[in-house]
């Protein structure tokens, strides 16, 4: 788990979780066994637009995935990406 590629991957993932709200979102998604649609906004003391921006950052980093369900997007944790993040951090 060392080398330039691993360092860059860890830096990118760390940047994606560098905000407490994004950590809260990840914790919420890990606790749930199914995808979550509107519930994320209800769980955080943030505006819907702010939550959407945080979800976008997590999705771009590959830590979560979003699936369209009618007019909504349902979000789930991306287990392989979370395992990779844990492995990279564990390799420090």
From TrEMBL:
Among the Pfam families in the record, one is HTH_5
Which residues belong to the signal peptide in this entry?
A: none
Matching PROSITE patterns? HTH_ARSR_2
User: Known Gene3D superfamilies for this protein?
Assistant: Winged helix-like DNA-binding domain superfamily/Winged helix DNA-binding domain (1.10.10.10)
Give the record's keywords alphabetically.
DNA-binding, Transcription, Transcription regulation
Q: Does the keyword Transcription regulation apply?
A: yes
Give all residue intervals belonging to the HTH arsR-type domain.
2-92
Keyword Metal-binding tagged: no
- What's the protein here called? Metalloregulator ArsR/SmtB family transcription factor
Question: What organism is the protein native to?
Answer: Polyangium mundeleinium
